Amino acid sequence: MDWLFSPTSLRRCTVALLVPAALIGAVAIASPASAAPAPGPFADVADRVAVTANSVAGIAGIDLPDTYGPETAIVVLGYGLLPDGTMRAELGNRLHAALIQAFMSPSSPVIVTGGNPRNGITEAQVMAEWLRLRGVPAHRIFTETKAGSTVQNAEFAAEVMAALGLHRAVLITSADHMRRALENFLAVGVPVVATMTPDTAPLFAKPFGAGN
């Protein structure tokens, strides 16, 4: 049990308590996503909370993703559903990564893209509901429910971005899918400023305990 009281474990325990609280605070005070949000008394508070979360995580040696503003979309690519319309584990992993990025960029719209309906529900609808249940406000989430391929993910997400006046994207998908997805998004003229995959997402990817 000595590992439990080591400096590294204690730092990580602290972060495990403080970072989620900071991220939840960022979500709670985030302003509605829009192309030109109106300034208000809390206009920059959410970003300050995200910066605080980054500072706390730095104490434990955990790198959180960069923070982006309302001009940058967080684009999450879907994955085939089970016949009953529920998620496969791979899609859940992508959404965990998306959730962290959404918490760290509380003013960025989140676009979930994926059609391929199963049991009357599309990938994007399942993804949107998963994110809403975990604290991402509904007004931040935009669903693209027609895409049936990675090419269409890029094309249709680009259309959503154009309609919202968004000019760049953080792309989230699986590691073995990222290269193809990135090529497709760049081909339709979407500047991708960052990427995240489930295996590079922080927090849950860095457990603490014996041997760590």
UniProtKB/TrEMBL annotation:
Residues annotated as signal peptide: 1-35
Keyword GTP-binding carried by entry: no
Keyword terms of this UniProt record: Signal
Residue ranges occupied by any DUF218 domain in the UniProt entry: 73-197
InterPro entries given in the database record: Cell_Envelope_Assoc, DUF218, Rossmann-like_a/b/a_fold
Listed name of the protein: YdcF family protein
Classification lineage: Bacteria, Bacillati, Actinomycetota, Actinomycetes, Mycobacteriales
